[in-house]
């Protein structure tokens, strides 16, 4: 039998010590005898979302006015998922706080049932897409990998995670490349598009090279919006070869056109844009490496005709990552 | 342009094979008029692709008519007699179930099934292959079927999960409408996988058979508050590897290499 700490609410202590059925039955009895006491137990600031979810069908609308905004937001989200309706929620700071509470206190019980999984996904999705809350990414990453280990659904959770368009999203996944659990490293490889020939050992060895690659290419990365609904191996992010070739990185992680300063830059970029993808990658990498060595040599190279740039890049065997 | 065995094909030489009002004829005309090149090793490979495209279109229309419902993966459901619902909401062919019967059951007992749009497109492919190969060959080629988005595709269908830019969007292709401003609480509306049909129509599971505007309207109705971007049709398409699949048919038809598949009533008319 588990011994919950005093940091748990009374209702949570019943759930942890005696299980879900005992919690439902105890709450049912209290609720029918003394609604005021039941409400007081629910309003315990230590109450977890998982306990609220388990009890949600016992709680009648008549007591809603006494529950407080956080619990109400939780109950409304539960109702929307059960009824398959979209977000008509009030979007404001109190919702942000409520969703954070749902995730913080609810994620340990992810897997309670499929409705519960869907509720947590929606919380993650709104926190990322509406409130641009990147602080939840570590928890969301934990959930993705925990679910994957158990063969549970990661379809929408992964979509929401990469919608963050935040560089930490890649670093948090990259850490799992070196995981001792083959399931984690295999998924990390797949999500990051690390080519390891389906070899878990290859994935594990890819951690440091990937971080180096990420550091090098970070200014040119953008998130694509691809998802598992679209493709078998969605490319969640890509390098913008034009930015890399022109050495014009951006802190934004969405694709945006380069602000050109003169006609020479325009002509150079037009010539580059007309190349096949393989040659674009070759020149972008060559440009990046030259620039890292020194801007004077890079400028001279950039003024050469594009055909010559390709020839020299090929001759020097660069362009492979 | 169509190229067969390295030579440009004059499609007028095939008009006897396909009536001018047939889907195959329309496909031939569009491929011949295309700026892209459609290259085949043989006429039989071309014939196979035309047949499979026709069957994909027919399977999509039939699925739209069935009572097969839309549901997110967490609420997906299937006929447990043929399929085992997995923890992630996918459908795994039950041990001992006959693949062809299990696929047909989705069409005949549609009300017992519900899932998302990507899985629906997979079901369309399987039905089309069943009609093209016949049940015995189909069952031999696809003894294990798993239906769940694009993440664990049968090797014979792997290419359908990798959309690419193409010169044309042809009937039988998989297209994708993306909804960049989707309501974060309804991620299932982040986009719609569709089968491209003739006459500028599309089949999308949960929406039905309609024009592009119908799909876009359906997706736009599920956008976030203050959305500024409309849903749109992406310019990439997913296609099976027709040549690989034709090879599996022809190998047997030509040489009887797989008698255990016992094809007695081939449904593809191979042209020479």
Walk me through this protein's architecture:
The complex is a heterodimer of chains A (321) and B (272). Chain A has 18 helices and two strands. In chain A, helix 6 crosses helix 7, helix 16 runs antiparallel to helix 17 and helix 16 crosses helix 18. The longest helix of chain A has 17 residues. The N and C termini of chain A lie far apart (53 Å). The model of chain A has no long low-confidence stretch (mean pLDDT 92). A five-stranded antiparallel sheet of chain B has the order 13-12-11-10-14, with helices on both faces. Chain B has a three-stranded mixed sheet with strand order 2-1-3. The longest helix of chain B has 23 residues. The chains are: A mainly alpha (321), B alpha+beta (272). At the A-B interface, helix 7 and helix 9 of A face loops of B.
Can you summarize this structure?
Chain A is mainly α. Chain A contains 18 helices and two strands.
Shape of chain A: elongated
N- and C-termini, Cα separation of chain B: 19 Å
Mean pLDDT of chain B: 91
- The number of E-state strands of chain B comes to 15
Oligomer: heterodimer
List the helices and strands and how they pair.
The complex is a heterodimer of chains A (321) and B (272).
Chain A: H1 10-18, H2 20-33, H3 35-42, H4 49-55, H5 69-83, H6 93-106, H7 114-129, H8 137-149, H9 155-163, H10 167-174, H11 182-192, H12 200-205, H13 207-217, E1 221-223, E2 237-239, H14 241-246, H15 263-273, H16 277-293, H17 295-302, H18 306-315
Antiparallel strand pairs in A: 1-2
Chain B: E1 2-4, E2 7-8, H1 23-33, E3 38-40, H2 43-65, E4 69-70, E5 83-85, E6 91-93, H3 99-108, E7 114-115, H4 117-133, H5 135-141, E8 146-147, E9 164-165, E10 174-178, E11 191-197, E12 201-204, E13 208-211, H6 212-220, E14 232-233, E15 236-237, H7 242-255
Parallel strand pairs in B: 1-3, 4-7
Antiparallel strand pairs in B: 1-2, 5-6, 6-8, 9-15, 10-11, 10-14, 11-12, 12-13
């Amino acid at each position: 039998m588990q011994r919950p700490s005093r940091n748990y609410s009374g209702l949570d202590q019943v759930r942890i010590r005696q299980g879900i059925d005992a919690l439902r039955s105890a709450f049912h009895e209290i609720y029918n005898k003394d609604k005021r006491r039941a409400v007081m137990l629910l309003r315990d600031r230590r109450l977890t979302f998982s306990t609220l979810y388990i009890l949600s069908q016992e709680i009648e609308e008549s007591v809603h006015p006494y529950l407080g905004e956080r619990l109400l937001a939780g109950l409304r989200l539960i109702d929307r998922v059960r009824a398959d309706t979209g977000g008509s929620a009030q979007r404001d700071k109190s919702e942000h706080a409520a969703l954070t509470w749902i995730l913080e206190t609810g994620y340990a019980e992810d897997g309670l049932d499929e409705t519960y999984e869907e509720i947590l996904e929606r919380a993650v999705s709104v926190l990322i897409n509406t409130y641009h809350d990147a602080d939840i990414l570590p928890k969301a990453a934990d959930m993705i990998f925990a679910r994957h280990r158990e063969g549970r659904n990661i379809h929408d959770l992964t979509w929401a995670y990469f919608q963050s368009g935040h560089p930490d999203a890649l670093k948090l996944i990259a850490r799992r490349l070196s995981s001792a659990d083959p399931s984690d490293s295999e998924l990390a490889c797949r999500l990051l598009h690390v080519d390891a020939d389906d070899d878990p050992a290859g994935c594990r060895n890819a951690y440091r090279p990937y971080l180096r690659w990420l550091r090098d290419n970070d200014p040119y990365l953008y998130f694509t919006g691809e998802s598992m609904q679209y493709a078998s191996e969605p490319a969640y992010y890509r390098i913008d070869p034009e930015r890399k070739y022109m050495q014009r990185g951006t802190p934004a992680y969405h694709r945006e056109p380069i602000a050109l300063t003169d006609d020479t830059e325009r002509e150079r970029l037009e010539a580059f844009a007309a190349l096949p993808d393989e040659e674009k990658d070759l020149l972008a990498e060559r440009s990046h490496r030259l620039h890292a060595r020194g801007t004077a040599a890079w400028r001279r190279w950039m003024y050469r005709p594009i055909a010559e740039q390709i020839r020299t890049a090929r001759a020097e065997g660069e362009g492979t990552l | 342009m169509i190229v067969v065995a390295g030579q440009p094909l004059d499609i007028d030489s095939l008009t006897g094979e396909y009536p001018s009002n047939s889907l195959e004829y329309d496909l031939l005309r569009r491929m011949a008029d295309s700026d892209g090149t459609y290259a085949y090793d043989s006429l039989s490979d071309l014939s196979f692709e035309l047949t499979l495209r026709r069957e994909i279109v027919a399977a999509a229309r039939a699925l739209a008519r069935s009572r097969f419902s839309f549901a997110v993966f967490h609420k997906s459901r299937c006929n447990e007699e043929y399929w085992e619902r997995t923890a992630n909401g996918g459908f795994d062919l039950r041990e001992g179930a006959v693949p062809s019967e299990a696929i047909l059951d989705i069409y005949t007992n549609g009300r017992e099934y519900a899932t998302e749009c990507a899985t629906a497109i997979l079901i369309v492919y399987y039905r089309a292959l069943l009609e093209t190969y016949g049940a015995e060959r189909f069952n031999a080629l696809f003894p294990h079927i798993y239906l769940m988005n694009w993440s664990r595709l049968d090797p014979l269908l792997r290419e359908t999960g990798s959309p690419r830019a193409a010169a044309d969007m042809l009937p039988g292709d998989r297209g994708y409408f993306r909804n960049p401003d989707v309501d974060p609480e309804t991620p299932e509306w982040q986009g719609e996988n569709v089968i491209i049909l003739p006459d500028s129509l599309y089949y999308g599971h949960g929406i039905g058979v309609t024009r592009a505007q119908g799909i876009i309207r359906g997706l736009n109705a599920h956008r976030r508050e203050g959305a500024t971007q409309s849903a749109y049709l992406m310019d990439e398409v997913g296609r099976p590897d027709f040549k690989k699949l034709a090879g599996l048919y022809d190998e047997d038809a030509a040489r009887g290499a797989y008698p255990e598949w016992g094809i007695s009533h081939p449904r593809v008319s191979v042209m020479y």
